[in-house]
Amino acid sequence: MSTIHPTAVLDPSVALASGVSVGPYAVIEADVCIGEGTSIGAHTVLKRYTRIGRENRIAEHVVIGGDPQDYKFEPCASYVEIGDRNLIREGATVHRGTVPGTPTRIGNECFLMATAHVAHDCTIGDRVIIANGALVAGVVTIEDGAFISGNVVIHQFSRVGRLALAAGGTRITQDCLPFVVTQGSPARARAVNAVGLRRAGVARGEIAALRRALHILRTTSGLERALDALEEIDSAHVAELVRFIRAPTKRGFTHARA
To answer: What is the pTM of this model?
Structure first.
C-alpha cells in the first residue's frame, strides 16, 4: 500500500506500485509510473512522461521530467526513464528527451547529489555518481561507475568512459577516457583512476597495464601509432580503452599533456 501525504497533488492517471511514499506538497503529473518502494520527498515535482523504477529515494525540491532547455523543442511525448535503487538529492533536475519517443535514461544505483543537473537525451549508466552542482549538458553519455565531481561542467555530445573520474571544477569539452582521471580547464587526462579501479575490484596487473597505456598515449607521436602499440598490450581494460577511442565521436577525446 502506498502512503500519500494529504497535501500532495497527484493526477488520477498516476501509476503507483506498492510501498511508494509521497511527501508533503509534492506534485505528480499525468502519465507517470513509480515502482515499488520508491519515496518522493516534499515539494518534489514529477512531470508528465516520467518512469521511475523500484526503491529509489528522491529528496526534496527535485524536478524530474521537465521540458528540454532547447530552442528547437516542440511539445511531444518524450520521456525520463530512471532505473532502480537510485538516490537523487535536493534540488536535482532531470529533463526529458527532445523528440517524440526519446528518453533521458538513468540506470541503477546512481547518486545524483544536491543541485546536480542532467539535461535532455542523456544516457547515464549504472553506479554513476554526479556530485553537487555538476552540470551535464544534452546528449551526453556517462558509462558505468564514472564519478563526476562537484561543479564539473560537461559539454553536449560528450562521452565519459567507464570508471572515469572528472575532478572537481573540471570543464569538459571532449570525451573523457575510461579508467582515467580528467582534470582542469581546459581538461587533461592526468592519471589512471587507481583508487576507483581498486574499489571496483580491478586487478593490480590491469591497473599497471592502464598506466603503461596512458604513458604511450602521452609520449607517442601520432594517434594511430599509439593505438597500434596499445593493441599489443595483453589487457582487457586497455582493449576497452582502445575501443572507446576508436568509437564514433562528435567531440574527440581529452588528451594527456606531455
So the answer is: 0.96
